[in-house]
Each structure stands twice: as structure tokens, then as C-alpha cells.
Design a protein that fits this description.
CATH topology: Four Helix Bundle (Hemerythrin (Met), subunit A)
Number of strands: 0
Helix content: over 70%
Structural class: mainly alpha
Largest sheet: none
CATH superfamily: CDP-alcohol phosphotransferase transmembrane (TM) domain
Number of helices: 8
Radius of gyration: 17 Å
């Protein structure tokens, strides 16, 4: 929901950093993969009961996720770059609630609901992008992307804010997961409705 507005704040410093790394010969894909492994450090950290360390991993992952896009804007986006970016992002998103389930067995049900909800937002997002590409529909409201980015109530910015809140208040994981998961389903339903309106004219 806030991603487009946030881009106006974070893009200028990221673009300067992206230019620096590009000049050093560091590729966007290198940062993407490195950021993924850094972010996945949150999984064992949470399993060991260290949400503070997990928080550091999450923040570094998101910083590197922004940086890889900035480098790609300098070098030019590639299909494999866009593919790796979205696949590794979704794997990372699923790892965080799984880590909380490993931390405390009583978190398992709400963690499962959260991952279930992420499948809804992820599949509705990617399926829309596939049809948008087929129809040559584009947008740059969230910056130059490898494929169409459909917004919603729970986008990347909201998800990261939610992860930060979970790490700061892990004792409230259950209620936070149920609330955010429900918001994800609102996003999924609105995306399905948007697709029906945009793509259903010929039905």
C-alpha cells in the first residue's frame, strides 16, 4: 500500500549506492543471492530463540534487496535477475514465520495460517503479472521492474514492518500473525477482483 510512496524516499540514496557498486563491477544478481543467504540467517536465529539477531538479518536482507534493484537500474534489468529477485523474496518471506514456528510450538498454527496467506498474496501477484505481460500492460509506479507489480493492502513495505514488529514483540506472534494474515487475504481478494475487472471482459 505504501510502497510507491516509500520509493520516493529510498530510491535516491539507493541509486547512489547502486552506481557505486556497479562501478566496482558487482552485479545485481550477486547482491540478490548474497542478500537471500543473509536473510535466511533469520531462520536459525529464530529457531534458537534470538529474534534480535533475526531482526538484523531481516533488515540487511531488505537493504540488499533494494540495492540489487538500484544496481540493475544502472546495468539494465535482466530476465534472470527479475526471476531470482522474486523467487528468493518469497522464499525469505516464508522462512520468517517458519522460524517462529520452530521457536515455539504454540506459534505453529498461526505461522501456518500466515504462510497460507502469503501463498494467496504471492500467487495472485504473480498470476496477474503473467497475464499483464501477455497483454503488454506495464507500470513504473513502483520503479522499473522486470514484470508488472500489482499493489495491495499488504505489499513489501508493510510485510517488512510486520516482520520488524514480530521480532520486537515475539510474545505477541499469534495475534499479530492472525491479524496480518487476514489483511493478506483482503489483498488477495482485491487482486482477484482487479484481475476479473481487467482481464474478464472477453468472458
Amino acid at each position: 500500500m505504501f510502497d510507491a510512496a516509500l520509493r520516493r524516499l529510498i530510491d535516491p540514496p539507493l541509486n547512489r549506492a547502486g552506481l557505486f557498486f556497479h562501478r566496482q563491477g558487482i552485479s545485481a544478481n550477486t547482491i540478490t543471492v548474497a542478500g537471500f543467504f543473509v536473510g535466511m540467517g533469520a531462520l536459525p536465529a529464530l529457531a534458537l530463540g534470538r529474534p534480535d539477531i533475526a531482526l538484523i538479518c531481516i533488515l540487511l536482507n531488505r537493504l540488499m534487496d533494494g540495492l540489487d534493484g538500484a544496481i540493475a537500474r544502472q546495468a539494465g534489468p535482466t530476465d534472470i535477475g527479475g526471476y531470482l529477485d522474486i523467487v528468493l523474496d518469497f522464499l525469505f518471506y516464508g522462512a520468517v514465520p517458519f522460524g517462529f514456528a520452530l521457536m515455539m510450538p504454540e506459534f505453529a498454527l498461526s505461522a501456518a495460517f500466515l504462510i497460507f496467506s502469503f501463498i494467496g498474496t504471492g500467487s495472485s501477484f504473480l498470476a496477474y503479472a503473467i497475464v499483464a505481460e501477455k497483454r503488454k500492460i506495464t507500470t513504473d509506479i513502483r520503479g522499473l521492474k522486470s514484470f508488472y507489480y500489482l499493489g495491495g493492502l499488504t505489499e513489501g513495505g508493510e510485510t517488512i514492518a510486520f516482520f520488524i514488529l514480530l521480532c520486537l514483540l515475539p510474545q505477541h506472534f499469534n495475534i499479530l500473525a492472525w491479524v496480518f494474515g487476514s489483511l493478506c487475504w483482503i489483498t488477495t481478494v482485491t487482486r482477484i477482483w482487479a484481475a476479473t475487472v481487467a482481464f474478464g471482459a472477453e468472458s
